Amino acid sequence: MINLPKDDHSCGWYQALPPAAPVTRLKGVQKADYAVLGAGFAGLAAARRLAEHHPQARIVLVDAQRAAEGASGRNSGFVIDLPHKFALEHPDPAHKQKLLGLNRSAIAQLDSLVQRHGIDCQWSAVGKYQGAVGERGEAFLDHFEHLMKDLGEPYRKVDHSELSAVLGTSYYRRAIYTPGGYLMQPAALVRGMADHLPDNVELLEQSPIRSLQRENGHWCLRGDDGEIQAPKVLLGTSIFTREFGYLKNRLLPVMTFASWTRPLTDAELARYGGKLNWGLTPADHAGTTLRMTADRRILIRNSYKHVPQYGGSTNDGMRQRIQADHRQAFLARYPDLAEVPFTHTWGGVYAISRNFTNFFGQLEDGVYASACDNGVGAAWGTISGTLLADLAVGADSAQLHDIQQVTGIPSLNPPEPFLGLGVRSRIALAKWQSRSEL
């Protein structure tokens, strides 16, 4: 029994897009040279790279939903060049430099695609802020500054006055600004890339794959109304990789939630008083992420849930409670905008591992996967999908060696019910500890 994506239909990023083009679904028997499962950042990058290597090959890219409906279209709109907070603490400087190089290669690739195809996705090289609300956040911020010095990366301290002028709120004490990150509208970026795939890539959407089996020397991906037969399969399925029997008991499904407002009116924007198009992540990782989009929407993201059945683990009541928490965070920052409503509250599921290790490589003969982005999927998905295609076709490169050196096997999880109890307890503890930063 395959547990399929079951995302809610209230993602603001996706709902803000114009209507999608007519869908093409999987029907009948489709034979391909390569099958790519999952049309998120990893799957799109893998399919595009395969087409570059073999422009005469038939490549089929298949997804259970529409492109941009899943996790890749549901993040907070950051493409971050710096390694994740936990990776920044790795004792080997060379390890961190490899991660930095891989992330920046992904950003360059995305930038090239946006410019070449004119993808309208609010793509902007504006960097990001990491902010502290109180003493706990400031302690994390001091630690982050120490890590940045060790890494030799540029950063700038932002005091309370300057930060307040940018954010339109005096809620934060100070921040550190790093220049290498980009902001974007994730659903628009994903759809734009899906709309501009190479000619020899066929995208099949709303076509859930319910089994993956080896038959007569090829792999068979069976759906409700058809199947794909291919000698090689690339899985850009993140947490759903375990549904096909791989990395079982090694990936943790976690969902994080966001809410945003409608676009501010001119009068509300004047009252807000800050700038447009910036993003702030919390120095305390369990704190609140804050965005002001280029089209005048304020986005609040916090609240984490363990979701063993993915979207099936959530419901309207849960989202209403989470929206109420987001409302408190919003009003604490912008009390003068109390009349501005939230229009959407949504969740997105991603995979983490207990040892914060990403998986990249060959699972068995003809099956390759990139799984477990540990919450930094836009850049990592793009570069890991690209290099997974290189691995599948036997194309060697220095970057392929780099990604193989910085990835590994996610550690085993304890069995249920202990796993669920432990994860829920850790999330609850982190929320309590970080309450001053929310």
Automatic annotation (TrEMBL):
UniProtKB keywords: Oxidoreductase
Name by which UniProt lists this protein: FAD-binding oxidoreductase
UniProt source species: Oceanisphaera sediminis
Keyword match Oxidoreductase: yes
Keyword DNA repair belongs to the record: no
Domain of life: Bacteria
Residue ranges annotated for the FAD dependent oxidoreductase domain, each copy included: 33-391
Pfam family, one: DAO
Listed Gene3D superfamilies: D-Amino Acid Oxidase, subunit A, domain 2, FAD/NAD(P)-binding domain
